[in-house]
Amino acid sequence: MTGHKSAVLVLAFSPDGRFVVSGSSDKKVLIWDISVGHLVSELDYHTGGISGLGFSREGTILASSALDSTLALWDFATLLTESGADEMTVAQNPEVRKDTETLLLASYRTKGSPILHLHFTRRNLLLAIGSFEPT
């Protein structure tokens, strides 16, 4: 599985175990369908290296954070239904989705804290951890 142009910094598996998401210092989030070994989508929003990834409990939302002090929430359910992930086979080479604007649900910026880690709790609350860096 190749796709990143730089070192992979973080990985996250979907709750069902079918997808793996990778974040890299090349500022991209790549979504892979590991059941067939294909790249499904490339999300390009952050301007810093990706530092955190996490799935909501039901697997419909993907959260990503970066060293540029941003957090993004992605519509993972729409990605799956519109990409036809259920019909994919190993022999196919599907088109990689790059429509970041369509899948982006919300984005947030901190004042001066790079977000280093993300975690969804059992009650589906998103926790983000970072360290304050004064300007």
Fill in the keyword field for this structure:
4-stranded antiparallel sheet; 10 strands; single chain; Methylamine Dehydrogenase, Chain H; globular; mainly beta; 135 residues
Description:
With 135 residues, the chain is mainly beta. The chain has one domain: Methylamine Dehydrogenase, Chain H (7 Propeller), CATH 2.130.10.10. Helix content is 9%, strand content 43%. The chain has 2 helices and 10 strands; from the N terminus they run βββββββααβββ. The strands form 3 sheets. A 4-stranded antiparallel sheet has the order 1-2-3-4, with no helix packed on it. The termini are far apart. The mean pLDDT is 88.
- Count of extended strands: 10
Shape: globular
Largest sheet: 4 strands, antiparallel
CATH class: Mainly Beta
Distance between the amino and carboxyl termini:
39 Å
User: Helix and strand string, N-terminal first?
Assistant: EEEEEEEHHEEE
Radius of gyration: 14 Å
Q: Estimate the strand proportion.
A: 35-45%
User: What count of structural domains?
Assistant: 1
